[in-house]
Design brief:
Blueprint (H helix, E strand, L loop, with lengths): L3 E5 L15 H17 L3 E7 L8 E11 L5 H4 L7 E12 L8 H17 L6 E4 L4 H8 L4 E2 L5 E4 H10 L3
Parallel strand pairs: 4-5
Antiparallel strand pairs: 1-2, 2-3, 3-4, 5-7, 6-7
Length: 172
């Protein structure tokens, strides 16, 4: 299995123009908007690169701050949380892997790293869940494999307490 590193996107090092994934929108985002969003402080973009070619992007994900309405959460979770109308969350906004890196577990590596990072930062900047908006049923199935649960809005979520358990079971 190839060795990879996950790093913050660096426009001077990482060759965004070479990245291609199944989604034209995600490809375009990485190539044209990811750097600008990072500079604006809107999202943080992390790229997975082969150790043998640290400029080649095999995959990426973005994280940003978000909030979730308490009423959107299942009642059994909501009743355990503080009584605020909305609570802090971490948005996993985008996640994609390059077509040339199919069947190498890149998506799993990216999602696991995103969850590790979100959980770690939730200890410094509060966040009760990770939320994501799967683009289709295939993406939703992928997230379900990591215990994400559906919300009525189509969005999916994973509580930080579940992430803690997942991290104990699955070491990077």
């Amino acid at each position: 299995m190839s060795a990879f590193l996950i790093q913050p996107l660096d426009a001077t090092t990482h060759r965004r123009e070479d990245f291609r994934c199944e989604s034209a929108g995600l490809t375009a985002f990485l190539q044209t908007r990811a750097r600008k969003e990072m500079e604006a402080g809107v999202s943080a973009c992390f790229v997975l690169v082969p150790e043998s070619d640290r400029g080649r992007i095999a995959g990426f994900y973005t994280l940003s701050a978000a909030e979730i309405e308490v009423t959107a959460l299942p009642e059994n979770l909501a009743k355990k949380l503080p009584r605020y109308p909305a609570l802090p969350a971490t948005l996993l906004g985008r996640l994609a892997r390059d077509l040339e890196f199919r069947a190498q577990g890149i998506g799993d590596r990216l999602l696991f790293n995103a969850l590790v990072r979100a959980f770690s930062t939730s200890k410094e900047v509060g966040s009760v869940v990770v939320v994501t908006d799967p683009k289709d049923e295939k993406a939703a199935d992928f997230y379900r494999g990591f215990r994400f649960l559906p919300l009525k809005s189509g969005r999916m979520f994973l509580p930080m307490k579940e992430i803690a358990q997942l991290l104990k079971q699955r070491k990077p």
